[in-house]
């Protein structure tokens, strides 16, 4: 039967090689970047030593074998050779985004068998009645080489794969964030994105690394158990019982610690929020030492809760580790002291072999059990990543992806219409606030001011107009076409009061607009402060008013048919305020833009074509 199984393995190996060769010919598998000389030669040397040694051992076996056994040896030789060719090919021509689970599984099995075979060979050599059997030394070395070579190949593939997984996961989260509805992002607990992008992806990937060790240990243990079963079935069943009992106890305790880990994971979100506050509120904390003291206490409280929860969880685990170790000692004690009376026919050599192999297995076994906490933590992180993605995507996922929205398709003449549009914060809560119902039309070539007291709903209306919010009732249409949230953005250039200034001109063809950019730098009196090189600002470390002017430059270059400015002039000196109202806005209007301005500057109200006054979210 074995001959057939190995034969099948050979066929599978040959087919895999053919598939890779086809992939290389078609260009799907690209050669990896040139290796550093020393790394390449060490790999070749290692392979030569391994295959040379393997060849010698197989030849040694061949000499003392029957014809039938020789067929198996020939098959094994061919299998190793083909596997070597396959590994060399896939090592030098890595497939992009490859997930070589089968290869890794086989490498894990090989190196696990190598690991286990060392102790079997030692066991066979040490208890021989005629003294230590030195003739078995080559097989011991072969076990070592198989283990080391298998691990080396396995880990190099694993490093490639886990880093690929982290990259993919991070990009996936980033894409989800970029496509998420603004409302979901706004409502998101601060610190959650950082924890997810940073910690959770790391936890998952480092566990993937651990999986390899677990795989190798499992193979070593399985091989050990098979060996034990061959020596003595009752002893095997007893030790298996102990392992199952220890694992069961471990599992139960870890499950109870799981809830604590979930809580520590929640605390991490809070911790990142503190870091955020620390960075952005540093000025206040620096100036006011009592504020800094209270902040420190608050943060220390959160860190202490984290510490205590972790300690509680880890103490639970520590208890089982001790019990687990004790169980292994107990089973060995039983074998040595109880087996001779339980199984009088059992020979002393068998007893010794049993203890010997079991001692060797205890290490990997405890390591697997000790890895279970990490497994649970990785599971928590994985769950968090998934629920984070789901929370962001929401039910009302944006139709268009961000790749599409970078392509603008704006019409020159626009009519933006709000029809009985309502947006309400905290719909089902007591303290809700609603803007609307609003029925209004904004047209190209018109300058509209939105005015009203603090909290009257001006910025909320602006978010509704620009498609950051989707109306709860009514609709927003552009040139008669109903718009979903996020679709209006391609037609609008905005400067909100809390606008963020990127240091690069994202989404703007800078080369085509370089001269225009220089012109606006002069117009906005920024040419002494900032320069633009390859679409990147030389600095964004400017005064608040200057930063707003730079944002205005970006808005000019965006060149969208609708312009919305939220209290832009509030941070400007009288000269620039005058320039903004008396020169810039009329200029944009005469270019045919639909200009919407949120303002408190009542001296300039007369310049607008229409003024909307908001009171408690409604047009007064
Ligand atoms: N993200 C939010 N979640 C819940 N309520 C909000 C949110 N943003 C604003 N509000 C509420 O909506 C109301 C209107 O806020 P908005 O920012 O639109 O007012 P505004 O007219 O722009 O005020 P200001 O002149 O002070 O900028 C406020 O009472 C505020 O409490």
Structure description:
It is elongated and about 110 Å long. Helix 1 (2-25) runs parallel beside helix 3, helix 2 (37-63) runs antiparallel to helix 3 and helix 8 packs parallel to helix 11 (348-393). 27% of the residues are buried. Helices cover 65% and strands 10% of the residues. A hairpin with a 7-residue loop joins strand 1 (415-425) and strand 2 (433-443). It has helices at residues 2-25, 37-63, 67-92, 101-126, 137-179, 182-187, 192-231, 233-280, 282-287, 289-342, 348-393, 402-405, 458-465, 510-523, 544-558, 574-590, and strands spanning 415-425, 433-443, 447-452, 473-478, 481-482, 492-495, 532-533, 536-537, 562-566, 594-598, 610-615, 618-619. The chain folds into two domains: 97-393, ABC transporter transmembrane region fold, CATH 1.20.1560.10; 410-619, P-loop containing nucleotide triphosphate hydrolases (Rossmann fold), CATH 3.40.50.300. Strands 6-9-10-3-11-12 form a six-stranded mixed beta sheet, sandwiched between helices. A four-stranded antiparallel beta sheet has the order 2-1-4-5, covered by helices on one side. Bound molecules: adenosine-5'-triphosphate (ATP). Adenosine-5'-triphosphate binds next to helix 13. It is a multi-pass membrane protein. Keywords: ATP-binding, Membrane, Nucleotide-binding, Transmembrane, Transmembrane helix, Transport. Its main location: membrane. It holds the Pfam family ABC_tran.
């Amino acid at each position: 039967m074995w001959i057939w199984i190995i034969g099948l393995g050979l066929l599978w190996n040959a087919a895999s090689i053919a598939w890779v060769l086809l992939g290389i010919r078609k260009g799907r598998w690209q050669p990896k970047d040139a290796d550093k000389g020393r790394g390449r030669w060490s790999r070749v040397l290692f392979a030569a030593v391994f295959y040379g040694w393997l060849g010698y051992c197989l030849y040694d076996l061949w000499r003392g074998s029957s014809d039938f056994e020789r067929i198996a040896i020939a098959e094994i030789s061919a299998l190793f050779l083909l596997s070597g060719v396959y590994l060399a090919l896939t090592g030098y021509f890595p497939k992009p985004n490859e997930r070589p689970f089968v290869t890794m599984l086989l490498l894990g099995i090989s190196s696990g068998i190598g690991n286990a075979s060392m102790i079997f060979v030692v066991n066979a050599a040490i208890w021989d009645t005629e003294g230590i059997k030195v003739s078995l030394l080559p097989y011991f070395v072969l076990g070592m080489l198989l283990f080391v070579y298998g691990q080396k190949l396995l880990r190099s593939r694993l490093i490639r794969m886990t880093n690929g997984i982290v990259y993919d996961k991070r990009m996936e989260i980033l894409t989800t964030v970029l496509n998420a509805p603004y409302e979901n992002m706004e409502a998101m607990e601060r610190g959650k994105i950082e924890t997810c992008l940073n910690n959770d992806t790391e936890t998952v990937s480092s566990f993937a690394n651990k999986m390899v060790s677990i795989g190798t240990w499992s193979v070593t243990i399985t091989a050990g158990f098979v060996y034990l079963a061959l020596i003595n079935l009752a002893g095997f069943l007893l030790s298996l019982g102990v392992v199952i009992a220890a694992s069961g106890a471990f599992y139960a305790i870890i499950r109870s610690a799981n809830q604590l880990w979930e809580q520590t994971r929640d605390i991490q979100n809070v911790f990142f929020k503190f870091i955020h506050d620390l960075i952005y509120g540093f000025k206040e904390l620096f100036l006011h030492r009592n504020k800094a003291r209270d902040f420190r206490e608050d943060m220390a409280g959160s860190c202490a809760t984290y510490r205590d929860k972790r300690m509680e969880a880890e103490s639970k685990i520590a208890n089982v580790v001790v019990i687990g170790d004790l169980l292994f000692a107990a089973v060995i004690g039983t074998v040595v002291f109880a087996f001779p009376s339980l199984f009088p026919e059992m020979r002393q050599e068998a007893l010794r072999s049993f203890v010997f192999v079991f001692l060797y297995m205890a290490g990997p076994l405890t390591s697997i059990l000790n890895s279970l906490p990490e497994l649970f933590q990785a599971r928590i992180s994985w769950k968090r990543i998934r629920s984070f993605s789901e929370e962001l995507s929401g039910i009302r996922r944006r139709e268009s992806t961000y790749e599409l929205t970078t392509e603008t398709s704006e019409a020159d003449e626009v009519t933006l219409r709000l029809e009985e549009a309502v947006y309400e914060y905290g719909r089902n809560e007591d303290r809700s606030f609603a803007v609307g119902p609003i029925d209004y039309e904004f047209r190209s070539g018109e300058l509209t001011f939105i005015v009203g007291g603090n909290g009257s709903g001006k910025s909320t209306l602006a978010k509704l107009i620009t498609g950051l919010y989707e109306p709860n009732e009514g609709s927003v249409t552009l040139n008669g076409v109903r718009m979903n949230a996020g679709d209006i953005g391609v037609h609008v250039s905005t400067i909100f009061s809390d606008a963020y200034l990127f240091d690069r001109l994202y989404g703007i063809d800078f080369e085509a607009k370089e001269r225009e950019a220089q012109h606006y730098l002069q117009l906005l009196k920024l040419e002494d402060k900032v320069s633009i090189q390859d679409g990147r600002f030389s600095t964004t470390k400017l005064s608040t008013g200057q930063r707003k002017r730079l944002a205005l430059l970006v808005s000019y270059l965006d060149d969208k048919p609708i312009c919305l400015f939220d209290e832009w002039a509030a941070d400007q000196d009288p000269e620039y305020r005058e320039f903004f109202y008396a020169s810039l806005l009329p200029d944009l209007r005469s270019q045919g833009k639909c200009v919407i301005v949120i303002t408190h500057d009542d001296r300039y109200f007369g310049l607008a074509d229409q003024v909307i006054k908001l009171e408690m979210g409604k047009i007064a």
